[in-house]
């Protein structure tokens, strides 16, 4: 059977392939975006896990928008006004898919930063969106390029990760947040704010969300994968009711609703008295690992390689002198370290500047030190 045209153009995920190769026990993987499984708050889930056998109602079909007590909790936590609603989704990735399927016709323009999150490129590719990119600076998207793209392309939406971007770790400045919100209102573009790393800040002050400045022109994607557990597969989408109702319709067709026992488990976890303490523990753990990776990179890498400092998230972006980054990643793998080369994060690979994405959350400090030593040996020989 011939596969759909929309799927024919989608590349299989390079990261999944490299992750498969990186399971070799001699390889230190800085390739994935995995939280450390030792941080999973199983103890904080235990009271709900023990109570669930008596909660028969969660084993019945549930409401498409989600499990009532969880939705109430999230409405309160996110301080949603009456005009807004929340939907529980199967990971925030499903939220993105629902947005794309509810709003994008083939050929509709979506603006993204370059580089961009690979999973978003796959989702927008599947609905045959016209993906137009604007370059990213140290403080967020290039605002002139963004306004020109808004003028020239009349896009439906601008998708972005303003807090600790995947892959670059960039966190948008306050001025950029305000300016982007203003542009979205001015040009009537919906802002899709993907915020899976927002709570993983380990230094500096939290900034307001971009959507705080344009609440009527934005949809926010929330993930619990990095702060609780990705295997639960529960995320959430928030936005004004008129933006989100079409998503409920698409979700009915997609999976009726997300797993209710898993939503109940997440609800129990989020309202546990020690959840805040758990959050500060993972922030401290990841801060320590980031400091190890960052200082080793600065100590050991050749001067032609530049490392960007980050205040949170899971990734460090290392820019390199001109080279074939795919060949380099292959060579690094043969030398026992897995990384992701920059071109996979661009809808048009030819626009990529040479760089590597390194993850610091899923390796122990001694492994990070060893990984940088392997990395610099190969880079120095280039
Ligand atoms: C930017 C971004 N958005 C969304 C996701 C998907 O998250 P979830 O596990 O909530 O589906 C990821 C996962 O790595 C991500 O990096």
Automatic annotation (TrEMBL):
InterPro entries attached to this UniProt entry: Aminotransferase_I/II_large, Class-I_PLP-dep_aminotransf, PyrdxlP-dep_Trfase, PyrdxlP-dep_Trfase_major, PyrdxlP-dep_Trfase_small
Transmembrane segments: none
UniProt keyword annotations, A-Z: Aminotransferase, Pyridoxal phosphate, Transferase
Keyword field contains Disulfide bond: no
Presence of the UniProt keyword Translocase in the record: no
Domain called Aminotransferase class I/classII large: residue spans: 43-375
Cofactor names: pyridoxal 5'-phosphate
Pfam families: Aminotran_1_2 (PF00155)
One Gene Ontology term from the biological process aspect of the record: alpha-amino acid metabolic process
Alphabetized GO MF terms: pyridoxal phosphate binding; transaminase activity
SUPFAM superfamilies: PLP-dependent transferases
Protein name: PLP-dependent aminotransferase family protein
Organism: Vibrio paucivorans
Species lineage: Bacteria, Pseudomonadati, Pseudomonadota, Gammaproteobacteria, Vibrionales
